[in-house]
Design a protein that fits this description.
Order of helices and strands: HHEEHHHHEEHEHHEEEEHHEEEEEHHEH
Strand order of the largest sheet: 5-8-9
Radius of gyration: 21 Å
Structural class: mainly alpha
Strand content: 5-15%
Number of strands: 15
Largest sheet: 3 strands, antiparallel
Helix content: 40-55%
Shape: globular
Number of helices: 14
């Protein structure tokens, strides 16, 4: 969190600049030119290469990206993170960065082969849990972008199938995640709720009431649906229609159970399911839109989810949850940075991709432009990007979490550039 005087000065600066970014005014190439130049120059600051184990830092065969770099902060990154990596490469899926992008995917596969899990990050003390699984999505992005060939696809998809079976469908320690009616939960080998919540990437959030081990999360199970459909897609590519049909049946069954347990027809949203208490959670969150991104909802559900956007949409973009009547702290007084009023780049990316997938192009563009403007306002004021933003009051700093608020910032930079390419470059 910024010091009080600095925060006040920054708020005044940003508020003055709001006039140049009216909601009804599109951004131009000139508006984002300096920010995009900063992003392009920032990638090399985040690149690391550690081929050998060094104390707690695990060695990896190829260079990779860390989430952020800020000199002399006392809180610096040198390790590769699982889901951060997926979002960071979205802006650099091009020929210039092919070696880096493919190398990051190879690093993730290397980690799985070594530990039989893709750890939270490449640290010895983070191998007891993973992060939200995006391996098949990463694989198909690389396959499609670089025409990697079917032999390559078969090799890497086999690793993803192992990860799916061993980690996410595991039924006993060290991977006791498959717990109820074919659905999985987040987990940590230490069997602690807060560490399982850390595996979700949403550390911390009101979604799980500090009881993450008791919940079947919407986002995780939508991601596993995506895995199953990606396995089917891969099988069809190499001509195994029988295997493809089997995976599609598995995915349909997951959707059926998720709809029974998690879909709230009246509110038009998905909710995490507490399988211990046999009831849905009460927190409305953007996790509800993972099924939209994964392509597992029907048109009626898609329409309901679009109508539900009003719960999260504000002048600066989408808040991670709707407003919390009891404030920003869950039991135990831990700050919940993955909650209202904060917005996060990866969630904007997934929601907007989902909206585009189902033909809601106007809504996708509106939200993307709001997010770009929020990013621009802070960049113009501070000449940097944040890991998260206060989308309810964009002139104010985001609410802090368990660790110091970070700047830089890998996935924010990447999604900003992605949105610029789609919603500014393509409309010029």
């Amino acid at each position: 969190m910024l010091p009080t005087r600095a925060a006040r000065d920054l708020k005044n600066f940003v508020a003055r600049n709001l006039l140049s970014f009216r909601v009804d005014k599109d951004l131009t190439d000139d508006d984002v030119k300096e920010a995009r130049a900063y992003i392009a120059a920032y990638w090399e600051k985040m690149e690391r290469f550690h081929p050998k184990d060094d104390e707690s830092l695990l060695g990896l065969p190829k260079p990779y990206l860390v989430p952020s770099y800020r000199a002399k902060t006392g809180f610096d990154y040198n390790e590769l993170y699982y889901w951060d990596s997926y979002f960071m490469v979205q802006a650099i899926l091009d020929d210039d960065h092919k070696e880096l992008v493919v190398g990051i995917l190879e690093d993730l596969i290397f980690l799985f082969k070594r530990f039989k899990i893709i750890p939270n990050a490449s640290r010895t003390y983070l191998t007891g849990r993973s992060q939200p699984p995006f391996l098949t999505s990463f694989i198909f992005d690389v396959y499609n972008t670089y025409s990697m060939g079917d032999k390559w696809l078969k090799e890497v998809i086999s690793v993803a199938e192992e990860e799916y079976q061993i980690v996410w469908m595991g039924i006993k320690k060290p991977n006791e995640r498959l717990v109820y009616k074919g659905l999985s939960r987040y987990y940590d080998i230490n069997y602690l709720h807060d560490l399982a919540e850390a595996e979700s990437g949403w550390d911390m959030t009101p979604r799980f009431d500090r009881r993450a081990l008791n919940y079947l999360p919407v986002d995780l199970n939508a991601l596993l649906y995506k895995y199953e459909m990606d396995f089917a897609r891969a099988a069809r590519i190499w001509g195994d229609d029988r295997k493809a049909a089997q995976w599609e049946d598995v995915a349909r069954q997951r959707k059926l159970i998720m709809d029974q347990l998690m879909w709230d027809r009246l509110r038009g949203l998905y909710y995490d399911y507490n399988y211990v208490k046999r009831k849905r959670g009460s927190t409305s969150s953007l996790a509800s839109y993972y099924p939209l991104w994964a392509g597992m909802v029907d048109q009626h559900q898609a329409s309901s989810l679009v109508k539900g956007l009003h719960r999260f949409e504000h002048k600066g973009g989408l808040s991670t949850t709707d407003a919390l009547p009891l404030g920003q702290f869950v039991l135990g007084s831990l700050p919940t940075q993955w909650a209202y009023p904060n917005g996060w780049a990866p969630l904007h990316f997934l929601v907007i991709k989902g909206l585009e997938r189902y033909g809601y192009h106007q809504e996708a563009r509106r939200i993307a432009i709001k997010w770009l403007k929020t990013n621009c306002q802070w960049f113009n004021a501070q000449h940097l990007f944040l890991e998260k933003y206060n989308v309810v009051s964009p002139e104010k700093p985001p609410l802090k979490g368990l660790y110091p608020s970070q700047t830089g910032f890998g996935w924010t930079n990447s999604i900003f550039e992605c949105f610029c390419q789609k919603y500014i470059d393509q409309s010029q």
